[in-house]
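Friendly challenge for the regulars: who can give me the structure tokens for this chain first? No prize, just bragging rights.
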Amino acid sequence: MSKQLHSTMSDRRRFLLAMGVVASTALESSLIAPRGANAAAPTVASKPVLLRPSNDHNLFRVRVELEVEGNVNVPKNSLVSKKSDLQIPIKSTATLDYEERFFRTTDSTRVTLAQRHYHEATSESTLNRTEQSSRLRESVRSVIVRRGDTPELIYSTDDYFQRDELDLLRLPASSMGLDDLLPIEAVTAGATYIPTTDAMKSVLSLSSVEASDVVADVVSITDDDAKITFQGTVDGSIDGVPTTVRTVGKLTFDRRSGVCIWLAMAVHETREIGKAEPGFDVAATIKLLRKPLDKPIALSATPPKLTATDPIPQDRLYVELTSKELGVSVLMDRRWRVMSDVPGAAMMRMIENDRSIAQCDFRPLASLPAGTQWTLAAFQQDIKKTLGEQLGQFVSAEERVSETGLRALRVTASGAVENVPIQWVVLHLSDDSGRRMLATFTMEAKNADVFAGSDHQLGGSLRLLDPAVVRRESVTKTQTAPRPPRIGKASSSGDSKGEVQSASDLKL
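First reply, four minutes later:
Bragging rights claimed.
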């Protein structure tokens, strides 16, 4: 396997850790009874009962165990085609344990945001025989979760997330959305109801739901609890990328506390290849336990003053991106992703709703003697020579000292490639030792407004790290002899045998 392909897989697999779905060997062997099965538990009464969550409980301890197994579908070039060129087996487990404090709307009916502290957030994954671990750093364990839109928006109050940490925390089931699965009307044991598309969007943390045939059954109602099962298929999207989720699950509602305390779910998800991430076909399970708390353990004793109308602090939404091969670190908005990282070059791309906005290519330059600097005029001449006939004109040129202490030369140029108007922003960054890095942004001229100063953000935040140290810290355990990729256990979407019919199909 080429180094470039290996780098691509390494950079892209992390997002799967967030979906990396469950389960513990202690998970019940019979997750869910077939729909319509007779409930063995005695019912409270034959008259309908409202299964309404209590608005008095806003503090919880939540534990999630996840496991996923299947295939990653990698294209040759996601900008040109969504056709898979290579299927790579993926296997992942993750455990998250956190406190969660809800903040509701003024009428106290809907949870709009939450404060969390993660006691544990870890994952172990194997991608084509390459193993990697991920663990949430101490500096980003206290977070705020916003639910104005789905998927949930998470940001740390103390530090900036790295991309793999964001992916680790992005779950395929929302602890804040469990109550949406409950029936709206009063029900009796044996009743059947249809969760709304908004409910499935909320529970599955999807960006949108176009269609859902999920049906839920009230299996039993006692004085203590109500047990609900559900199954069906949801067609939706994540960040503009179509996905199909076939699911079966079980929900337990504690009637005495008015809290959904248990969710166990099996899914088979088939997601198309996107511009930012590969596609996949995975079989997965998730177990979520939730318990009301009388007082916080790690969260602040007094709830902070937070409301859904508060503006989102944009400076907290940056993500730390690192080239391990070049020894470069930058803070960029979350639309930017590292797409390749190989010796001598790295590339990141700005993706919004599965649309490519811009690309940035990094290239190290030969070091200059200490104390020697490249002039802005010489930099412009080099750009002119590189772009050749594609160059139309220079739009601007400047030099300054960045916030990280680097000398930055910045040149904006316009031109055309195959009659398509193009804009380039080229940055030359150097330190006093003579080490230099070139960052070249390329975009269609029509995307300049959406690009919105990403070059200034990069120039102000870029740090030159020791590449040898970065590579040494990121060493993963691999087999000494490379082997050809092998297809994992999950069937392709065209194979009906791969569809989830009941939880027992996944041998929980």
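The helical segments are 3-12, 14-19, 163-169, 197-204, 376-387, 448-451, 454-461, 467-473. Residues 376-387 form the longest helix (12 residues). Your move, everyone else.
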